[in-house]
Amino acid sequence: MTKQEIINRLNTIADLANVADNGYHYEVIARDWANYGKDRTYFTIVETRDNSKHYVKKDYGFYDNNADEYVAGKANIEYDFGGNHKIEIVEETVEETAEEITVMSSQRFLDEDIVEEKKEYLEENNITEITCPVTKAYMQDLDGNDLFILTNMHHTLAAARELGIRVKFEEVDNDFTESTDGEEICREYYMGDHWYYVNHEDRDMIGVDVW
Which of 25, 76, 185, 205 could form a disulfide with 200 if both were Cys (CB 3.0 to 4.6 A apart)? Predict the structure, then answer.
């Protein structure tokens, strides 16, 4: 596994735990350490609880940056945070949703404070690539490009682009309908602004209104 694959897997473990939304919170910590000719990135996941001093830290080993190899820790990276259920990671193999697909959104407003928080998170965790969820719009723009709608991660996308982090897009199921009616889908995902290009093979088109 590469270091980024390790981080992606740890983020999946934390995300699965955070889904419970029961007052417990899980955060991936990637800490670089270099000394005595060694260069390592240590991995932990921290569990905290609202209104409590509860603090549990699990050791997921380290990545040897000199040897380009992962050294396992006490916690098993193949299982959830509790160590009870094996998790499945779907490797990214979807070529049609590569960086050049045409993506749009109608959410223009971004909270700059949140963008800064996302930038700090990406930097602190040494994240070099993010994947944003999109769903088919079943519509084309005036140039005949098939359109996808960005369904989430607007602030993280902005932060990644400011930092020069690679951005990929992955198609996900429509949260609202199984319809293939483009107008209906756009109504469901409408966020109040004019539809604009979030991603386009012509980078000058990013931010320009689609219609």
Answer: 205
